[in-house]
Amino acid sequence: MTTLMSAPVAALLERLFSEAENVQTPALAEFAALPVAERERMLNSKTEYRAVYARLKDVAIPVSRETGTLLYMLARSSQARVIVEFGTSFGISTLHLAAALRDNGGGRLITTEFEPSKAQRARDNLAAGGLLDLVEIREGDALETLRTGLPEQIDMLLLDGAKGLYFDVLRLLEDRLRPGALIIADNADYCPEYVAQIRNPDGGYLSLPFPGEVELSMKR
């Protein structure tokens, strides 16, 4: 059995996914009621993301179950040892990645979250899953928290925070991405600047968009 499919991680993830699927808050209802164009503008913005995600601080906004499994599979099959995650939230994707590190024999996962209450919930969930020893949670703006103190080489990068910052985070880290490193971007289409770079034939990446959710790329 894998760590992902065993106690305590499997039951913990099932509870967290179920809670996320059933949550209803006034802030979430208010955001969902906005016109589509307005929601997209706010998600694309490099300046409004703090206000948006602060309003949704009690909402997990996790990756899908399928994407979580994909993250585990990619990290395992690539034998990743160093993973960076932009956007911790409640730690659902973090649990999948940390489970892969455990099954790879160990490693280091650096994840960053600017909402302190979410960072604490993620920390509690990782502790409950017995995976906190593999994870360093950094609190604050990713463009600052990921600027220093990183390993020389990164095997895998997950972008699942403020969509408008995907390009900037990639630029910040790409010199440390090893050849063959995998980059997974959730809802990448919300950052046209990122998409243009990652799909540019001369941009140094191979990239494959999965309809509706994930862009999977590899550093050449």
Automatic annotation (TrEMBL):
<dbReference type="InterPro" id="IPR029063">
    <property type="entry name" value="SAM-dependent_MTases_sf"/>
</dbReference>
<dbReference type="InterPro" id="IPR002935">
    <property type="entry name" value="SAM_O-MeTrfase"/>
</dbReference>
<keyword id="KW-0489">Methyltransferase</keyword>
<dbReference type="Pfam" id="PF13578">
    <property type="entry name" value="Methyltransf_24"/>
</dbReference>
<dbReference type="GO" id="GO:0032259">
    <property type="term" value="P:methylation"/>
</dbReference>
<protein>
    <submittedName>
        <fullName>O-methyltransferase</fullName>
    </submittedName>
</protein>
<dbReference type="GO" id="GO:0008171">
    <property type="term" value="F:O-methyltransferase activity"/>
</dbReference>
<keyword id="KW-0808">Transferase</keyword>
<keyword id="KW-0949">S-adenosyl-L-methionine</keyword>
